[in-house]
Amino acid sequence: xLEGSPCAVLVDDEEVAHGVVSADTGLSLDVRLTDGFDRxxxxxxxxxxxxxxxxxxxxDYAVVIRSVDDGQLVLDELALLSAxxxxxxxRVGTDLRVTLEYEVVxxxxxxxxxxxxxxxxxxxxxxxxxxxxxxLREGQRVGFQLRTDFDDLPLVAEVLRREDAPxxxxxxxxxxxxxxxxxxxxxxxxxxxQIAQRFRIGDDD
Length: 205
What we know:
Number of domains: 2
Largest sheet: 6 strands, antiparallel, barrel
Number of strands: 12
Number of helices: 2
Distance between the termini: 47 Å
Strand content: over 45%
CATH superfamily of the largest domain: predicted glycosyltransferase like domains
Low-confidence stretches: none
CATH architecture of the largest domain: Beta Barrel
Mean pLDDT: 87
Helix content: 10-25%
Structural class: mainly beta
CATH class of the largest domain: Mainly Beta
Order of helices and strands: EEEEEEHEEEEEEH
């Protein structure tokens, strides 16, 4: 059952709206939107619904919009496109430094002044843990460039939780608006870094 799962509506590989699955009948889904109301296509349009399920992880479904009424969507003709559970749990510790350059508020980009220096504690294809000495809000979305040996990726992280840490705060975040190419690149980097770390541990023995 998808009921209670956070979700996003995607059009042309872009997240245009976010909400929560409020009802799952098995044949259709009701989604209560929290933002992006004016960007949802009209009834009859085919879109992708991306869910973030506690047990099964991230899953993408092809769906058809049957109705849009006061922030409530009814979706049917569900077809599973892809599941990302394995990618979500493949995580690697890092000491990558990034600069949080902007935040996204109601789909508008606002520069952070001054930019915030942060460190990536660990990383997966769907999420990241950050450390910095600046307080961020739960739900705040911050953008940064992740530069690896393979790629230069523009990413946006949504803060899900915050905890105190030495010299600042630790943040658990999910990556939002990630394209398939970016998710593939992240997964490739995580796997290659895991292999490299195993070799480094072997060399130290």
